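Fold this complex.
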Amino acid sequence: MHPLLHDRRAFLAYVASWLALSYVPASVLALPGGGRFLSALAAAAPPTVLFGLGTLPLYYLCQALPLRPTSIGRVLRIQSGLALVWSLAWLVLLALAARVVDWSIPGGLADEVERRWGPLVGVGAVLYLAVTAFHYLVASTRSARATEQRAAAASLQLREAQLSLLKAQVHPHFLFNSLNAISALIVADPRLARQLCVLLAEFLRGSLAMGERGTVTLGEELELARTYLDIERIRLGDRLRVDIQVTPLAAAVRIPALLLQPLVENAITHGIAGSVRGGTLSIEARTTPAMLVVTLTNPFDPQAPPRRDARGGVGLLNVSRRLAAAYQGATLTTHRDPDRFTSTLVLPAHLEETPHAEPVLAAQGTDRR
Amino acid sequence: MPNPSSPRKVLIADDEAPARALLRELVAARPELTVVGEAADGLQALELAQQHRPDLIFLDVQMPRLDGFEVLELLDREVGVIFITAYDQYALRAFEVNAVDYLLKPFSEERFEEALRRAEQRLGARSPSVASALAAAARPAGIYATRIVIKDGSRIELLPVATLDYARAQADYVELVSGDRSWLKEQTLQDLEASLDPARFVRVHRSYLVHADRIIRIEPLRRDSRVAVLKTGARIPISESGLARVRRWLEDA
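Structure:
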């Protein structure tokens, strides 16, 4: 439905404006040497209001023929043609109305319409173009509002994703196992217990601080990963070995905060922790001219007991979602060999703070491209 | 539990060294208990259990090779078990429902002693259904077993559910058949059926559970009775209610 038909007052205002616009053709008819103005107005008003009502469906035509630089010529041709047709139709109605007026108050108005058909067709065409412009205006306002709503909805979704990410950030399993390790080490190895306390505090503090920032450097992100892996090494012992290779340029690239962490945790919980022999988690980061490439590889036991918790994959899905929200052309690909899992992150190598990524916590702007 | 004069034998199974150390310390503080072994994965836990015949096992739920529930299925039913987990809402619910003792990491000494007391009170053997019921209750809805653990003499077999052709009830056991191999497992057919995806396994007979996509045709045997012929050539009797279930499966598939 046309937006005007939803709003009574707007509709009445629309009809009233067309009534007022009848003044123009009436003036043409009542020019010196023409008929009396009031008769002319009486004849002009009904066809002009009808013109206004009859052109309401043009709203859909305007939506179907948007004004774009590529199609402007075609649109102008179509609209000019329609302007001519519409104004001729209006002229016929005007001539009929003039005859009706002449019949009640003889004043030769119909002859005036015939004599001045040229200027009248011009007036009709101008009216047509005016109403078309009006429809374009309404359509563009509405589509702008729809875009705004879509953007708001997208931003809401993003924020929900961020919230669930944050909730998932510190896995309860990890937290309680770490506390249990501290509880065990307090008697057996008090120094290590204290070290574990400090590491756990560092990890939690780091996670919270990074959650409040939009982007961090890959170097900062890897620092948090190292703290996390130090904790896991105390729990898992020599089953976990870590090899991190990162070029200085790659370390300076800015990435959305906590983007990497789920991949690191995934490599431990679904890989090395489920394997008796364990193995090396290797993280390699380098830059190509425009992109940052981070590759994580971990062994896993194909015979490991299936994990009953349905969490598996949620971490990876979250990373993909955040990538899609922050960049165009960034990818997360995973590859499963018989006993080895690889995830590869490719994203634009921005060295400055970008407006794309929102902080995980306390998101402010909604600038998304 | 044996007579109280000799110390009771305790086995500790957890893949994290600090967690084992904590249990060792707590057990060592009690003269009526003695640690006979420590396992870092589920398979090792079973091996040590066979070797040392412990009275009680502290069993971590998440371990490499075999998880705690799989270990429980293969363990002698006389052994007392106290499960340990850090955080696993499904496992917790399963423990509560099946009245199985457990400890939540990290735990206090009081909680540790309470679990010991309760394990002592539960004298005698577990019913064979507890392990299956526990494993089933610990799985989120819609998630089914992907493998079946079987003890074949002293060997442990992991049979992928996808390779199972059919299972047959045999008194207190089920016979699991895959191709030309078969195994016996101490489990009821009902318990096995409950652990498997009902969209893939159909109870065609009181004594038979069939991997439905293995059926190539159904032949009449006598009046009122039919057999399912499997890809392997095996012929499985179908009961009247079983036939209705096969038909329903065919319609859904």
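Residues 266 and 315 of chain A are 7 Å apart (CA to CA).
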